[in-house]
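We give this protein:

***
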Amino acid sequence: MSIIMGTLGSIVYDFTNVFPNAKVMIRGTGIARTRLYQMHINRFWPQLESLFLIYGLRNERWESLKQGRNYDAFLGYRRIIIQ
């Protein structure tokens, strides 16, 4: 499972390198799969937070992702880095 999640992360990273203004939504095919995505997002939060703004769908509303809350889907996009 870690290989699959790593591949998904690499795809999102590469895609947003090519399309930096794109928004990427991730939702599992069921509650368990969505929870699995959330566990991996939490596991790699320090690395993700520096590159992406990530929101979670909760009660049909998007909010800034907060650890310890369960979400129905995730939405992320690249942070703008000014050099």
Remarks:
- The chain is about 45% helix and 25% strand.
- Residues 2-78 form one domain.
- The first helix runs from residue 2 to 18.
- The chain has a mean pLDDT of 89.
